Amino acid sequence: MMDRRQFLSTAAVAAAGAMAPLPAFAAAPKLGTQAPGFFRFTIGDFEITALHDGSVAGEIDDKRIPNVKFDDVVKHMESQYIPVKPFVNQFNTMVVNTGAKLVLIDAGFANNGAPTTGKLAANLAAAGIDAKSIDTVLVSHFHPDHINGLRNKEGELVYGGAEHVVPAGDFAHFMSEEKMNAVPEAARGAFKTAQRVFAPNAKDLRQAEWGKEWAPGITAIQSDGHTPGHTSFVVSSGNKTLLVVGDACNDPRIFAKNPEWHLGFDLDKPKAVETRKKLLDMASADRMQVTFYHAAFPATGFVSKTATGYDWYPMSYTDLM
Fold first, then answer.
1. Residue 149's pLDDT is what?
2. CB atoms within 10 A of CB 135
């Protein structure tokens, strides 16, 4: 039998051992990556694949929403749990499978942007879509984050086998040397990007007008203001419709809630407000599903009209279960 002295001695040894540092068995590094960025849903007989091209984190300043006091912008963002420092701008494209055609709407950056962008190629592959199988590319407007992904940094067309359909209004504006030379040097970046992307194959582009089908079941609708030819799309199959807003309403947490706010990047700001409200009124009244290029991925859901703006109800995977 252990006497008191032996017990205390054994306990002291055990306590000393317990205080000794234990070896680390699993010092795993942080991965810093998410799952592939694609999300599928249906509109009638069409299968839609939303695709994430990445994001850019940066500072918001008083130039982003120039007709509102910056403190009020920050207060709104904080009320919506939107980080201000940094503010994360997201970029989202989509492929519409009509059953006969694979139609890509806007193209992101490819390898022309920040390291945190250009994810479209990997996400297309993860979604089981071969870039070479894209039949048609529709362009909403000529800003760099929508068209850079059509031609990589090496100068090659990314979707070389596809027909490229572009808004005639933006082609006339951004491909014009006269219009480019009429703006300050600091504002010429979008013109130079458009000319880099489109000039080598300009003769092969199909310049299209509003009010017509640009691809089967996909009708272009007027939504200028952000740019002179900015185009939104109504995707229709059976009795279901999807409104592809593009940049007529930037982040809906900000600009659907506050449709009168001016986005600094809108060329014609009063017209952009008029367009934004027209599109959101239509989506709300007709209970249309909508997508926004700069919403948080998967960037699709619904809006409803309120006394001062519109509420935004994003969809998630669980909505489809």
1. 98
2. 17
